[in-house]
Write a structure and sequence with these properties.
alpha/beta; single chain; 8-stranded mixed β-sheet; about 900 residues
Length: about 900
């Protein structure tokens, strides 16, 4: 029986083996396969990681032997020997999860150095400074990543030595200085760990592999996985690769580059590099790097080779690539390529540009953009007309503008954010350990680091504004303040940042809403071509309807008439209608309301000309339009104590009596929806007349309008039959009075379980069904939404009783089953029955996918969710 292999050489793998080799290992294998200059190495697989945890976090002997065997292959390829004094092989040890997790896992460079091999390295390179620099870096990384010694303790030793020698950068330290750093680092290691720094290279390697495996479950990795819905069971691979050195002098360097601009999507090389440096210097923000374009001046041959490699990789992978590279003594090496993280704007532009250049299909372009990312394109920006006080300028690392209180600590940012306060997290540089403070912050500002630093990459992924490398800021963490150009800003002061320009601004600044780019519009046009679901909007005003049309709505799926009753000039008339003692009094009040309603409907129907507009008749219980009981009692008590106006007192007491009479124990299940229309038919008659008179007026103006009257909360066919008769009767009256005929539909909102299971009977009287999934979720679960979300729902989710908030993500097994049942029964009665959804789920990607699978005709959501819904609908069609 063949023994299972847990280790694979790069030359044995390919891009197709991502689940086994992780993203990084698979890409290293693929680059090796196509002949690119990749330093040789091997990958310890994700299966080894999972087995390691199953075995109680222990490396077993067979795995160790397999690692040693593969090390020998690298020794043969490089003519170097691991642990050899004369010609030592040094390796890097990096993690590589199946799903890219930038900055979340741990890396160790220069592994294999010890007191002996450092001497061999000096002799082999004739560069004493370089060898000691590599050794001090290795001790620091190994001590921090593997043994858990805090990073800043090493940095303090380095900073003190630089200060003592009057230099600013570590590149200015001499070999003797670096030798002293190594000695001090080893003493720190011994103090912190209680044993000497390990001198056996194999011991170093096995401890490093263990550390990478363990880092899969460290806090920051778990936070990142939770934020990005990455399964915990995937595990991480470990990549062991021959070291190449960017810190061997002025003909060496290291960098990170994207084949296109990850912020804008522009088709141009974008990235940074440092001369005479190792990789962590670029991403850690320890030195501010140079733009990649300057490589053309400093090392023109290397730049031209790198440019060709970038073009090759992008064509090979058919997507924008994020590439790590090192130049050792004028020779280019590739250390990694992966699909590049990008902003929403860049994702859209890259997808559309690649379609137009023929590199990918329209269907692939649709799948390249994450629907939730689309919301980032609706970022606010600073009003260009505003007078602003720019105090500093950094690198524009992640677009958008933000304003908030200055905070210097990630824990405090998290605390204030949870309390609803807007904060800007200000740091010298961020690390993966700051992620819990980055999540609630409005934006990030750092004084060090470049466009590919941790802060920049994480902020872009989250769609948060970020300004990096703002070197004019002098940050005093201990006193929680920063200084710039003679000015001091303290914790709690308000600042604004512009992640699109790099500006840091004093105080709060006016901002404006964004507009959709041409590429954005083009992508959504492609989405509409691909999708079988129509996307409508929920809109209650002409302004909302116009915005919805701008965002591509193909109609209105829900217009809530009760929102129109709340306007200041209308509320007294509504209250007069509710307090009426007789039907005649009620009709008089309704006659006053009719012109307002008609005007509303004219505006909305006109804004959505040519598309259907579904108008829901009055739904909430009447007491919602009356004053609060507690407030009335207080007012009455004050009037009695002070001997106030008796007429006013009488009026308030009558109001209180009526409010008490209308108040219900469970109003959600009480006298509302069609039940109101049945008991008080004159209310629905007025609304129907307002709709149809608006239709007639617009037809006279030459408008093509398509009204749909929706009866809410129907649970029995007789309710809909009665209300349909009422609406048809009013429509016939208006046509007779005006001499103008018009088309219209009458349907119902399906939002209680009985309606779903008797949908065949209800469909007899319906031209359409629209699922009100907010109430359908409440009635299916027996949850009161406000109480559930406020009291126990988060507990249910955190304790895995429910996978998601069912009011945010549609519950497929329960609510979804009822929807499918209603669709099947309804169309069994009426095969061409139009069916849609108008709850908040209409803008949520997973719920939209369900709607597509269930055979619905449309989804409807708020105007600003329309782009998300349009893209999600298209992706559902592509997946199918």
């Amino acid at each position: 029986m063949t023994q299972k292999k847990y280790v694979k050489l790069f030359k044995e793998g390919s891009a197709a083996m991502k689940d086994l080799l992780g993203g990084k290992g698979a890409n290293l294998a693929e680059m090796t396969k196509i002949g690119l200059p990749v330093p040789p190495g091997f990958t310890v697989t994700t299966e080894a990681c999972n087995t390691y945890f199953e075995r109680g976090r222990v490396l077993w002997d067979d795995l160790k032997n397999e690692i040693i065997e593969n090390l020998k292959h690298i020794e043969d390829q490089t003519n170097k020997k691991f642990g050899d004094r004369k010609n030592p092989l040094l390796v890097s040890v990096r993690s590589g999860a199946v799903v890219s997790m930038p900055g979340m896992m741990d890396t160790i460079l220069n592994l294999g150095l010890n007191d002996n091999t450092v001497q061999g390295m000096i002799e082999a390179t004739n560069n004493e400074r370089f060898a000691w620099d590599c050794y001090r870096r290795f001790i620091q990384m190994f001590g921090n990543v593997v043994m858990g010694i805090e990073h800043f303790k090493f940095e303090m030793i380095l900073d003190n030595l630089k200060q003592k020698n009057g230099v600013e950068y570590d590149t200015q330290l001499s070999s003797e200085n670096l030798k002293k750093v190594v000695d001090d680092y080893k003493k720190l290691f011994a103090r912190e760990i209680g044993s000497e720094f390990p001198q056996d290279p194999l011991e170093q390697l096995f401890l490093a592999v263990k550390a990478v495996f363990d880092s899969w479950n460290n806090k920051r990795a778990q936070v990142y996985r939770r934020l990005n819905n990455i399964p915990d069971h995937l595990g991480t691979a470990v990549n062991v690769q021959t070291m190449v050195f960017g810190n061997m002098g002025e003909d060496s360097g290291t960098g990170v580059a994207f084949t296109r601009n990850p912020s804008t999507g522009e088709n141009t090389l974008y990235g940074e590099f440092l001369v005479n440096a190792q990789g962590e210097d670029v991403v850690a923000g320890i030195r501010t790097p140079l733009p990649i374009k300057q490589l053309e001046t400093i090392m023109p041959d290397v730049f031209n080779q790198f440019k060709s490699v970038c073009e090759l990789l992008e064509k090979h992978y058919r997507d924008m690539q994020d590439i790590e590279f090192t130049i050792e003594r004028g020779k280019l090496y590739l250390l990694q390529t992966r699909t590049g993280k990008r902003t929403a704007a860049a994702a859209v532009k890259i997808a559309v540009d690649m379609v137009e250049s023929g590199l990918i299909t329209k269907q692939e372009a649709i799948m390249r953009v994450i629907p939730e990312q689309i919301e980032q394109l609706l970022h606010r920006r600073i009003d260009p007309e505003a007078q602003i006080d720019v105090i500093a300028k950094g690198l524009p690392a992640s677009p958008g503008a933000a304003c908030g209180k200055v905070v210097f600590d990630a824990d405090e940012a998290e605390k204030l954010g949870k309390n609803g306060e807007k904060v800007i997290l200000v740091r010298t540089e961020t690390t993966p350990d700051d992620i819990h403070g980055i999540v609630p912050a409005q934006g990030i500002l750092t004084s060090r680091g470049g466009m590919t630093s941790h802060a920049a990459v994480v902020a872009r992924g989250m769609g948060k504004p970020c300004v990096c490398g703002c070197e004019a800021l002098k940050i005093d963490i201990s006193n929680e303040e920063f200084y710039v150009d003679g000015r001091t800003f303290r914790k709690g002061d308000i600042i604004s940042i512009d992640g699109s320009t790099g500006n840091v601004i004093s105080g709060e600044v006016p901002m404006i809403d964004p507009e959709m780019s041409n590429e954005f519009k083009k992508l959504l046009e492609i989405a509409d071509e691909v999708s079988s679901l129509t996307v409508r909007a929920n809109a209650d005003t002409p302004e909302d309807a116009a915005k919805a049309r701008e965002f591509g709505a193909k109609g209105i799926g829900l217009c809530r008439t009760e929102h129109m009753f709340m306007a200041q000039e209308r509320l007294p008339i509504v209250q007069e209608m509710i307090l009426a003692q007789t039907e005649e009094e009620r009709k008089r009040a309704l006659d006053k309301l009719l012109p307002f309603q008609q005007q509303d409907f004219e505006g909305i129907l006109k804004a959505m000309e040519g598309y259907p507009v579904t108008i829901r008749l009055l739904d909430p219980p009447l007491h919602e339009f009356l004053p609060n009981i507690e407030e009335l009692v207080v007012e009455i008590t004050k009037l009695k104590i002070k001997g106030g106006d008796t007429d006013k007192l009488k009026e308030k007491e009558e109001m209180l009596r009526k409010v008490r009479g209308l108040t219900e124990f469970n109003p959600m299940l009480g006298h509302r929806g069609c039940r109101l229309g049945i008991v008080y038919p004159e209310i629905y008659e007025m609304q129907a007349r307002a709709i149809f008179q608006a239709v007639v007026r617009l037809i006279k103006e030459g408008c093509n309008v398509l009204p749909e009257v929706m009866i809410p909360l129907v649970g029995h066919k007789e309710e809909l039959r009665k209300m349909r008769e009422l609406v048809v009767k009013v429509a016939d009256q208006v046509m007779k009075e005006t001499g103008i005929e018009f088309d219209y539909k009458v349907g119902t909102m399906i939002e209680i379980p009985r309606a779903c299971v008797t949908a065949d009977e209800i469909a007899e009287y319906a031209d359409f069904f629209s699922f009100g999934t907010n109430d359908l979720t409440q009635t299916t679960f027996g949850f009161s939404r406000d109480d559930a979300e406020g009291k126990f729902l988060q507990y249910y989710i955190s304790h895995k009783i429910l996978p998601d908030n069912p009011f945010a993500v549609l519950d497929r097994k329960g609510v979804g089953f009822l929807i499918k049942t209603a669709v099947e029964l309804g169309r069994g009665q009426k095969p061409k029955l139009k069916v849609g959804i108008c709850g908040e789920h209409g803008g949520e990607p997973s719920s939209i996918e369900f709607c597509h699978q269930a055979g619905l005709d449309y989804v409807s959501c708020s105007p600003f969710r329309l782009p998300v819904a349009r893209l999600s609908a298209a992706q559902s069609a592509v997946k199918e």
